[in-house]
Design brief:
mainly alpha; 87% helix; single chain; globular; 4 helices
Length: 115
């Protein structure tokens, strides 16, 4: 398992790269705001999920990763149903970007946990 600083740096770099790509795809101001909100939410949720996975005992890693996956799905649903309208964010860029952020950081998380 890699040190926490390396993990944090890799996660931030991955989110920054994915954000840059998504900001070139979604060019309207509302869509850009939605991408940035999604990046912030993904950063917090992924940090919690990765912390749970790192702190789990070897026998409990699978459960911790499962809890992290459930946390990601629930946060996506809550974001869609509760926060999009009050924040005035367009649904498509907000939800696509959050799903993309979760996907790329989850792939990164599995690599960081196993190496």
């Amino acid at each position: 398992m890699r040190p926490a600083r390396v993990t944090a740096a890799a996660g931030l770099a991955t989110l920054a790269l994915a954000s840059a790509i998504l900001l070139t795809v979604f060019r309207e101001s509302g869509a850009r705001r939605a991408v940035l909100w999604s990046a912030g939410i993904a950063l917090v949720i992924q940090a919690v999920a990765f912390y749970l996975a790192r702190r789990a005992t070897p026998a409990g890693v699978f459960k911790a990763v499962g809890v992290g996956a459930l946390l990601r799905v629930l946060s996506l649903v809550v974001y869609a149903l509760v926060f999009l309208e009050p924040l005035g964010l367009p649904a498509m860029p907000a939800l696509i970007s959050l799903a993309v952020f979760f996907f790329v950081t989850t792939v990164l998380e599995s690599w960081l946990l196993t190496s």
